[in-house]
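As a representative case, the lines below give one protein's residues and fold tokens.
***
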Amino acid sequence: MIQKIKLLVVVLLLLTFNACNQDDDSSSNSQSPSINKILALGASRVEGSRPEFESYRYELWKDLKENNWMFDFIGTQTDESSYPTFNNMNFDGDHEGRGGWTSGEILNGLSGWLNQTGSADIVLLSSPGGNDALEGLPYSQAVSNINYIIDVLQADNPSITIILEQMAPGRSDIMTSELTEFFTQMQQEVLNIAANKTTTTSSVMAVDMFTGFNDDLLADDVHYNEAGAVFIANRYYTILINVLE
């Protein structure tokens, strides 16, 4: 009887040890091992808010899956909205979009997010300075913050690829002369940033999201409807196919 009790204790200890090891393994694997880790970074145009308005992420995910690319969307945020499966696959809802956040707030949070997710291989930096413009914050400070955001990303991964939006405008009836000037200046400035921040190991690329964009692609003042999400996703995809490993 004593031998049976000892044997039972040993078995229980082994099961507990194995369970702890399994927990440790899952924790250590929380950061993605993918060769194409894609971080969608920005504010509400990244985050989305179904059914009120769309993020481009779902449409881009479908484009990439349909063409058999290996990748993983990463981020500390997870989209809990309902999306249809595609080719029997569930949408990867990880992202770093935070509604209403300015460039300064994104800059302040970025290092902490990267510590959690691990380094990104590719960053899609959406509508840089868009909320700064809507809140009437200084244009020069937005430009400075965007440059620092890129510095943080490149320090974290010197071989990172950053795709920087020349952002799409808001609905025509909200685009005051001040907003229009901010958006137009930033669209041009993105080209300068991309040229100045590209290194021998890290490419910074501009993507034109404003040419051809119109009110029919918006669900409200500034956010995409489904057609707008498709428009933005297609622009990203045309660049990503030349970037992905």
